[in-house]
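seq:
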Amino acid sequence: MSVETLTQAQFHEHARQWETTTLKTEVLLACGAVVLSILGLAGILPNDLAAITVIALGVVLGCQGTNVVLRYTELLYEAGATPNPRAMEVGRGITAEFLGGLAGVVLGDLGAVTNCANDTDVSSRDHLWRDAPIDE
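struct:
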């Protein structure tokens, strides 16, 4: 496996492409989270939509965290603090936003799995109660 050396112009081009892509992703996910939140508040599958919204917002936070790291790395590289921008990116690659986003995705997944398990239990109990005679 060979190591590719990036020139400063190539690094800036990759940074701009990544920034544009994550900006579009953040906008789409944030708009989707707003729509899902409104639907959940309206009473349409509130628990399921809340879990999906938390996952979407976790991804948004993760994208913002990677943008912060990328911009910070780019600024250090421009200032001459390091000759290798990749080394700094790996060294300072975890920010609070990224960790918050990761936690949001994990908790959203756990909420979705829990909702699926609860929905299965409720439907099986509902089926049992439907066939039971009512004493009056």
